């Protein structure tokens, strides 16, 4: 598996500074909100989203220069992402995230919801201060899409009639929209033409979809220690994901377990075992690879430079997470 540290070596200093800036940016007057928000940032993550922004900035700016506005956009994107995680954990009643207790588990649900709201508000304030209306419009849509995605998911829990198109659309709202829109916003800050803006939007869209599909595979194939959150949590919450949709085509027995909403203690483990006995996981991997290839095809010939090669490696890194 590719090391994320090695992968982002060209922007290592920028990511280190981003981590320091995030600590300062989330400072709140209320100590509980500050502690709740700081909790996830201090643990950190792989910073995939801001790394993509910084690399695209290098690709689209003369002399590989990253503007201060690009750096701030990378920070805003990570704040929005973290806010969505805090709210997701409340909705999914998830006890751990990145291997540590979730905000609502440490404090309570009310504090977690307020902490997520606070981060969304903070991101909006910093976004407005970029003084670029097109970027504001582009990134603001992400928060709308997040809400749309959560509502759609909530309305289709344990719904075995969900189609693959429905799943892809929901995955766009929940994950791919942030990557797609932040990629486009980066090119807007670089004063790129509309064609380049659209190219990177589509690149981000397919990368984000692949990322979500891989996450959904890992929910079934991985374990709590590696995931940093409980394995099988998607199944438990009734989220019908790609591996399950494909598995349903081969194993009608799964319909009964889902319709009963996994009421028996061992139903989740039984469902995972059945999915693993089908070609559901392999077909989901193939689907993720399709979206990765679509992302690669967008940029490989149009934007040739070392930083483009690093973007290609990100694609490989996303797929390597389940190898």
From TrEMBL:
It comes from the Eukaryota. Keywords: Chloroplast, Isoprene biosynthesis, Magnesium, Metal-binding, Plastid, Transferase. Pfam families: polyprenyl_synt. GO terms for molecular function: metal ion binding; prenyltransferase activity. Belongs to the FPP/GGPP synthase family. InterPro entries: Isoprenoid_synthase_dom_sf, Polyprenyl_synt, Polyprenyl_synt_CS. GO terms for biological process: isoprenoid biosynthetic process; quinone biosynthetic process. Coiled coil: none annotated. Its cofactor is Mg(2+). It comes from Dipterocladia arabiensis. The keyword Disulfide bond does not apply. SUPFAM superfamilies: Terpenoid synthases (SSF48576). This is Prenyl transferase.
């Amino acid at each position: 598996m590719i090391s994320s540290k090695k992968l982002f070596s060209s922007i290592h200093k920028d990511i280190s500074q981003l981590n320091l800036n995030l600590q300062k940016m989330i400072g709140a007057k209320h100590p509980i909100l500050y502690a709740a928000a700081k909790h996830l940032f201090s643990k950190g993550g792989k910073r995939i989203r801001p790394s993509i922004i910084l690399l695209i900035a290098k690709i689209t700016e003369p002399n590989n220069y990253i503007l201060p506005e690009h750096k701030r956009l990378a920070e805003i994107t990570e704040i929005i992402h973290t806010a969505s995680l805090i709210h997701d954990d409340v909705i999914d009643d998830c006890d751990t995230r990145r291997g540590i207790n979730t905000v609502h588990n440490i404090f309570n649900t009310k504090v977690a919801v307020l902490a997520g709201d606070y981060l969304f508000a903070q991101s909006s304030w910093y976004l407005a201060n970029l003084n670029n209306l097109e970027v504001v419009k582009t990134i603001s849509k992400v928060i709308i899409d997040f809400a749309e995605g959560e509502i759609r998911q909530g309305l289709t829990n344990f719904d075995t009639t969900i189609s693959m198109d429905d799943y892809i659309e929901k995955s766009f709202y929940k994950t791919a929209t942030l990557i797609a829109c932040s990629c486009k916003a980066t090119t807007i800050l670089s004063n790129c033409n509309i064609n380049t803006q659209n190219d990177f939007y589509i690149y981000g869209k397919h990368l984000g979809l692949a990322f979500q599909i891989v996450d959904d595979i890992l929910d079934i194939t991985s374990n709590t220690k590696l995931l940093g959150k409980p394995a099988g949590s998607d199944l438990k919450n009734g989220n019908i994901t790609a591996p399950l949709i494909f598995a349903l085509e081969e194993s009608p027995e799964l319909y009964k377990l889902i319709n009963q909403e996994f009421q028996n203690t061992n139903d989740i483990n039984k469902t995972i075992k059945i999915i693993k006995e089908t070609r559901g996981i392999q077909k989901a991997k193939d689907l993720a690879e399709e979206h990765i290839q679509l992302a690669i095809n967008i940029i490989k010939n149009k934007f040739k430079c070392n930083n483009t090669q690093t973007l290609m490696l990100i694609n490989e890194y996303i797929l390597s997470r389940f190898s």
